[in-house]
Amino acid sequence: MKNPTFSRFTHCNSVFSFALNNFISAFFACIFFIYTRFYGTHEAIIDQDVFDKVQEIRQQRHRMTKAGRSSMFSGLVYCADCGKRLYFYTCKSFERRQDYFICSTHRMHGDKCGAHFIRAVVLEELVWAHIKTVISYVTCHEAHFRAVIERRMKLNTEDAVQVRKKRLKKVEQRIRELDQMFIRLYEDNVKGRISDDRFAMMSKTYEDEQAQLKAEADTLRQEIEAQAQNEVDLESFIEKVRKYSDLQELTPYALRELVKGIYVEAPVEIDGKRHQNIRIQYDFVGFIPMDELNRQDSV
Ligand SMILES: [Zn+2]
What we know:
Largest sheet: 4 strands, mixed
Order of helices and strands: HHEEEHEHHHHHEEEEEH
Number of strands: 9
Distance between the termini: 96 Å
Radius of gyration: 31 Å
Mean pLDDT: 81
Bound molecules: zinc ion
Low-confidence stretches: none
Strand content: 5-15%
């Protein structure tokens, strides 16, 4: 005879396993879905821009020092004179305020570059002050900021674009000339004015030159088109800065999102005090001309 309690138990048990199986299948289906979406078309899950930034940060990921400390600035700081990285230095006996960055050229080769040295806390103060100013400027005077940066981008690129356009015109003209020269060469060969060997040799020379010029023309066209990207870049930067309008302290992610590089200049002594300038290259827009921004008549 069947035990009703046991029967109920086995029934419940089978209902439970059924539900559990369903849950496990659904769980793995979800994981599979996320996996395929992420690796195939990751923009559906995270923004492409964020994805790229994370990859960039991963590539720049720095090692923890033996003292068990690291700096969010590692890999971002460069010497303004030699262009090489500044290394983060700390040791167990140091207090945090003693940690510093030093030019790698100076560290390895001494006199080849002056002792570009900055304490990590000073660097953080300077960078945070700069970023705060930029954020508040974009937040309060967006139109002015846009106008100044737009004009600067134009000034920076206008000459470069003109040089490239001029060169492109010459390259295109030479490509056409080579076409004509090739036709004449071919006619000369057909009419027996030049030998087959000479024809083969000269046509090879023309073809090589033309191939080289075509590659150069492609590069020049791409570079000219790239200038149109400036406007998009400026908008992307403003959008990013808006995101941080309430930032209360510098975070490693905000730093990496906004900044591409920090250039530390040699210290100067003014009235017996050590002064050190830094220049910040922001993502998308490069160096921001703060003094120009502060001039009311700058646009
Ligand atoms: Zn240096």
